[in-house]
Amino acid sequence: MTKSNFPENFLWGGAVAANQCEGAYDVDGKGLSPVDILPDAHHGRWEALMNPKDALTKTYDFYPSHESIDFYHRFKEDIALMAEMGFKTFRTSICWARIFPNGDDAEPNEAGLKFYDDLFDECLKYGIEPLVTIQHFDTPVALMTKYNGWEDRRLIDLYLNYAEILFKRYRDKVKYWLTFNEINMILHIPFFGGGMDLNGKDNPEQIKYQAAHHQLVASAKATKLAHEINPDFKVGCMLAAGETYPKTCRPEDVWAALQANREGYFFIDVQARGEYPSYSRRFFKEHGIELDIADGDLDILKKHTVDFISFSYYSTRLVSTSEDDKQTEGNVFATLKNPYLKASEWGWQIDPLGFRTTMNALYDRYQKPLFVVENGLGAVDTVEADGSIQDDYRIDYLREHIQAMGEAVQDGVELWGYTTWGCIDLISASTGEMSKRYGFIYVDRDNDGNGTLNRSRKKSFDWYKKVIATNGADLA
């Protein structure tokens, strides 16, 4: 066994999202979340995601989120399994509609608050540090129908009211907070990212960036509020990350890659540096975008930057300015197929060195601590006759990415922790599938909602347990 490349207090763990695992969609006073009106993949989930008002008016045979993996009722069993692996941290999110069913209710829902009390208590019982996302693609549906979500500035105060309840209620239970999950996704999936339907709108880019401004101001104000309520709180932003490569050394391709990377950096530039980047002025002008910035907004952004930068990483991207090049399928982000990389069953290109590159690029740019809060391989798992699941492909993927992460630490990147995505199998956000599995823990459920929901350990379960026990030194 070699010496670990990771700091002694490194936070190893796993990540889920409330909307992909809890189920119990109408239990204990919960309101509707975006996933609750979306069908499964067989009934056009992606089309419904892009046309949310259609989803509101249609009735489907099966809604995957309604029961999901029933984490709401089974979390004690699941946390015990995570503790068995030795988790130091567990990333989850709080469902806004479980706390405020309509998003703008006068009083919070006590039953929802108690659920998260019980969840965090269960984590702390095993010495697992909760890492909590305040909004993970979970703007209440009622706020979409009433305000078109984050297009409306009034959501800033509604979000702050919600955040204040959380900060005060869990003041002594949660230390690490993320304000928004993958904040840059508002540009790509506005319904998930901002609770918005932009179909038929005259200038959707204007609306998306105005909504982004509202979220950025809300994030800064929440960061201020968090530090006032508990100075020990650590508040982070969260980016859907992955470097974009130019296909060739043709200068036009290099410039296109730089612009693609800036699209994501734009958000973190504001949250980590405290101001809109200089390149945004030309972009806004050329795209007919005029932000409505209220008095005091820029001051808030400047004074209340985040403590750390968290991000998801699954793949890098490739861009070309040639009209002959065609994009691959299977990625939310538009990308070309990189001939030097293998891909997952869902078309996500596997690039461990790109992980190291991405980490170095983020740390070089911001000089703030990083936290990897999503990374993993979605794959079809087969249950053998003896009940085992031999997911060596997942172990290989994670081994290569953890090695790359260790190299980045040796490069000088300050890294706080690593939570693999979907540490227990859950519902895919984009497709509603169960067959796209990421977890160390298998959940007996299929794409049509059949199965016992029983949990079992995959081969990767014991492997990750060993990784944690050796602080990343033994990856064999």
Proportion of beta-strand residues: 5-15%
- The total count of helices amounts to 16
Q: What's the CATH first level? A: Alpha Beta
Helix content: 25-40%
Protein name: 6-phospho-beta-glucosidase
GO biological process, one term: carbohydrate catabolic process
GO molecular function: beta-glucosidase activity
Active site: 374
Summarize the structure.
This is 6-phospho-beta-glucosidase. With 476 residues, the protein is α/β, with parallel strands linked by helices. 39% of the residues lie in helices and 13% in strands.
Topology summary:
Blueprint: E1 11-15, H1 18-21, H2 45-50, H3 52-57, H4 71-85, E2 89-93, H5 96-99, H6 110-125, E3 129-135, H7 141-147, H8 154-169, E4 176-180, H9 190-194, H10 204-229, E5 234-241, E6 244-246, H11 251-273, H12 279-286, H13 297-303, E7 308-313, E8 317-319, E9 342-343, E10 349-350, H14 352-366, E11 370-374, H15 392-410, E12 415-421, E13 441-443, E14 455-457, H16 459-469
Parallel strand pairs: 1-2, 1-12, 2-3, 3-4, 4-5, 5-7, 6-8, 7-11, 11-12
Antiparallel strand pairs: 9-10, 13-14
Helix pairs in contact: 4-6, 8-10, 10-13, 14-15
Descriptive key words:
14 strands, 476 residues, 8-stranded parallel beta barrel, TIM Barrel, alpha/beta
